Amino acid sequence: MKRILVILACLGISLQMSAQVPTIEARIDSMQMLIGEQVHLTLSVAVKEGQQVVFPFFQRTQTLTPGVEVLEMTEVDTTSIDNNMQRLSCTYTLTSFEDTIYYLPPMKVLVDGKEYNSKNLALKVLTLEVDTLHPEQFFPPKDIQDNPFQWSDWCGMFWMAWLLLIFMALAYYVYTRIRDNKSIVPPIKFVRKALPHQKAMKEIEKIKQQRMTTSENQKEYYTKLTDTLRVYLQDRFGFNAMEMTSEEIINRLNQEEDKTKIDELTELFRTADLVKFAKHEALINENDRNLANAIAFIDSTKREDVPTVEQIKPQLTKEQLLNRRTRTVAKVLLGMLVLVSLIILAYVIWQLYSLVGY
Questions:
Q1: What is the mean pLDDT of residues 46-50?
Q2: 224 exposed, middle or buried (CB, 10 Å; 0-12, 13-18, 19+)?
Q3: pTM for this model (two decimals)
C-alpha cells in the first residue's frame, strides 16, 4: 500500500512538473522546395500567462544554417488557450540557392530567462534538370509581350476625342464672336447739375452784364427775363411753365407760395405781356424793379437740399436690345461648350489611363 501511494505521488509530481514546462513546437510548411523558392518555418511556444518569452532573432539574409537564409520574420502572435495558458508563435521565411538536404538545428527560445530547444527539422532543396547535351536549345529571356491592337478598345476614346475637338472649335468660334462684338450697353452716367436757382441767377447775371434794362429793345429784355423765370419755375416746382400763359403760371403759383410774393411776380409778368404784345414802353426804374422782384422771388423760393448729381440711364433701341439678348445667349452657349469639353477631356484621359496605365 505504501509503495502504491509513493508511486502515485511521484506520478502526480511529475505530471505537475511536466505541466509547468513550456511546450516548444517547430513546423515547416514544406519539407522540400526548388532553388530560390521560399518556405515558412513557424516556431510556437505554449506557456502560462505572464511568462516572458524571447524568440530567436535573425537579421535579413542571416543564415539559419550554412546554405539556408532567413529573409524575414513576423511579429509575435499571441493566442489564449485553456487553463490560463497562451500560445505565442513567430514565422520565419527561409530560402536556399544550393540543391542539397539541409539539417535545421533546434531553435532556442528563452522563457523567463531559461533556454528551451525545439525539435530539429530537415529541408530538401531541389534543382531543375538541365539538358547539357543540347545547349543550342537554351533560349534567352523573352521580351515583353506586345498585345495585338484591338479597335474595339480604342474606338470609344477615338470618337470622343474628335467630339472634343469639335466642341473646342465651336467654343473658340463663339468666344471670338463675343470678343469682336463689343458690349452695346452704354454705361450709366452721373452728371453734376446746377440747382434751379443757381442756373436762374446765372442767366440774370448775363442780363445784367448786357445792360438790357437800359436797352431800347425792351421786348428782348422781358422775353429773356420771363424765360429765365419759366425755366426756374419748371425746375423748382415741377410744372411745365414754358407751355403756360402768364395767368396760368400765376394761378399755379397761388397754390404753392405766399400771395405777397406772387403779387410782385404778377406785376412782372403783366408788364412783360404789355411790352411783348401791346408795344408798351416801360420806364428804366420799372425795369430795374422787375429785375429785383425776380431776384427776390428766386431767392425766397430756392431749395438747396436737393441732390446735385443726376443719374442718366441709357436708352436702348430695339436693335440694341436684340443684340444684347444674342450676346447673353452666346455667353451661355460658350459656358456649356466649355463644360462639356472638360467632361469629355476627363473621360478621354481616364480611358487612356485604363488602356495604357496597366
A1: 90
A2: middle
A3: 0.37
